[in-house]
Amino acid sequence: xxxxxxxxxxxxxxxxxxxxxxxxxxxxxxxxxxxxxxxxxxxxxxxxxxxxxxxxxxxxxxxxxxxxxxxxxxxxxxxxxxxxxxxxxxxxxxxxxxxxxxxxxxxxxxxxxxxxxxxxxxxxxxxxxxxxxxxxxxxxxxxxxxx
Length: 147
Description:
Distance between the termini: 37 Å
Strand content: under 5%
Mean pLDDT: 80
Order of helices and strands: HHHHHHH
Number of strands: 0
Helix content: over 70%
Shape: globular
Low-confidence stretches: none
Number of helices: 7
Largest sheet: none
C-alpha cells in the first residue's frame, strides 16, 4: 500500500474519531441541560453531517467510491473499500447519536440512513459484512439489516 493511501486511511480514521468524540461530548452535555443543549445538539449534528458531506463535495474520487460502493461493494479495490467503510462508519456513528434524540421526537436522521441501507445493495452488503463487529445499538443494527 502506498504512503499516500496509508495517509488517506489514517486521516479518514482521525476525522471519524474527531466527529465521534464531538458527538459524545454533546451527548453528555444534553443530559445536563436538555432544553438549551438540544438546540446546540441540532447545530452540532448539522455540522457533523455537513463536515461528512463536504468530504464528498471536495473529493470527486470519494464521491465516485461511495456511489459505486452503495451499488456493489465488489467494484471497489482495497483502498477504495477502506475509504468507503470509513465514510459509512462515520454516517453510522452520527445515526447512533441521533437515535437517542429521535426517541424524544427531535430528529429522523437514523431513519433516513436505515432506509438507505435497506434499499441500496452495496450498503446492505456492507452492513451484513460488519454485523459481527458492529458495536452500536442492537436495535439500530436490526433496522439496518431489515429484521
